[in-house]
Amino acid sequence: MAQIKLSNLRHSYNPNPTGDDDYALKKIDLTWEDGGAYALLGPSGCGKSTLLNIISGLLVPSDGQVLFDDQDVTALPPAKRNIAQVFQFPVIYDTMTVYDNLAFPLRNRGRDEDIVKRRVTGIAEMLEVTEMLGTRAANLSPDNKQKISMGRGLVREDVNVVMFDEPLTVIDPHLKWKLRSKLKELHQRVKATMIYVTHDQTEALTFADQVVVMQDGEVVQIGTPVELFERPAHTFVGHFIGSPGMNVLPCDVKDGGAFFGGEQINLEGPVTGTGDGKAEVGIRPEFVSVSKEGTGLAAQVRKVADIGRHKVVEAVAHDSRIHAILEGEAPTAGDAVMLDFKQSQTRLYKDGWLASSPGEGA
């Protein structure tokens, strides 16, 4: 296994880039520690696959370095990097048995058959496919085929990193949770450095200890799932993570306070951002309370969605939509209500970036 460090990394598919807009990956400095579970999360086209291909050696970056345990591997081909990769579609040999599929990466490197047997049976036990070892891969269900593809990535002991490129895309929704749980369990047991690339927030947040959120070729935040949810560093992170995402409301900043539709909104703490950039208030729906009477922001309920474990209320105030997540009783469409924002979770953003700091005792 290895620590992976990306230093001053940039990449452009344009042979003569002249500005940031010409770069698919803008400057990235990032370190993944040995044995960690990481996710690259972002929408299609944000640069995830480009970054993955640079780490694997399929692409040489325009600028910067890729280091494995401080060794510069930037110019090394994939075969020299000791990387295992699991793709969207299972990469297995249908005519081989499950045992032979799992054994192939080891036999291809000349390992003794006693080592092959020990590793294959161990991985099969972890994947819960021991009873399938004699079965031809062509006869497996799609989820079991992907399990075997994962096993082929995990069976070697000499890999620096195991990379998963949206491995659950073709799996039926009711099986995704089971495979996500199995992958998390496998990481805890084998302690390999793993990087999981996905556009699905649920997959990223349930697998990774640290999530790297990307937008337009940039890393906008790195953090634990809790950190990304509770304190988004950028409004994009607030939008992208959560269902529904964070409420982002236009505001004016004056005298150190934020005003939405002329009404002052109590922020988590002092304003830290400077300049005259676009100012917005961010508050997650989980921290918005709704009442028929009392103080707060006057609004009218537009609709209520009952999704089982809770209700999502959409209200309108000063021509802006605001979502609230409620348990138990909820108002009905057309009701006049008061919205109250939990102050410790109400943040200011300028030009998308967090521009407030927690108050004392927060």
Short description:
Helix content is 23%, strand content 31%.
Describe this structure in words.
The protein has 362 residues and is an alpha+beta fold. The chain folds into two domains: 4-230, P-loop containing nucleotide triphosphate hydrolases (Rossmann fold, 3-Layer(aba) Sandwich), CATH 3.40.50.300; 244-354, Nucleic acid-binding proteins (OB fold (Dihydrolipoamide Acetyltransferase, E2P), Beta Barrel), CATH 2.40.50. The protein is 23% helix and 31% strand. It has helices at 48-56, 98-107, 113-127, 142-154, 173-190, 201-207, 225-230, 235-240; strands at 4-11, 25-32, 37-41, 63-68, 71-72, 83-86, 161-165, 194-198, 210-215, 218-223, 247-250, 252-254, 257-260, 263-265, 279-283, 288-291, 297-306, 311-317, 320-326, 336-341, 347-350, 353-354. A six-stranded mixed sheet has the order 6-7-8-3-9-10, sandwiched between helices. Strands 16-20-17-18-19 form a five-stranded antiparallel sheet, with no helix packed on it. Strand 12 (252-254) and strand 13 (257-260) form a beta hairpin. The model has no long low-confidence stretch (mean pLDDT 90).
Keywords for this entry:
362 residues, alpha+beta, Rossmann fold, OB fold (Dihydrolipoamide Acetyltransferase, E2P), 2 domains, 6-stranded mixed sheet, 8 helices, 31% strand, ATP-binding, ABC transporter ATP-binding protein, Mo/tungstate-bd_C_term_dom, cell membrane
Secondary-structure map:
Elements: E1 4-11, E2 25-32, E3 37-41, H1 48-56, E4 63-68, E5 71-72, E6 83-86, H2 98-107, H3 113-127, H4 142-154, E7 161-165, H5 173-190, E8 194-198, H6 201-207, E9 210-215, E10 218-223, H7 225-230, H8 235-240, E11 247-250, E12 252-254, E13 257-260, E14 263-265, E15 279-283, E16 288-291, E17 297-306, E18 311-317, E19 320-326, E20 336-341, E21 347-350, E22 353-354
Parallel strand pairs: 3-8, 3-9, 6-7, 7-8
Antiparallel strand pairs: 1-2, 1-4, 4-5, 9-10, 11-15, 12-13, 13-14, 15-21, 16-20, 17-18, 17-20, 18-19, 21-22
Helix pairs in contact: 2-3, 2-4, 3-4, 4-5
Protein name: ABC transporter ATP-binding protein
Pfam families: ABC_tran (PF00005), OB_MalK (PF17912)
GO molecular function: ATP binding
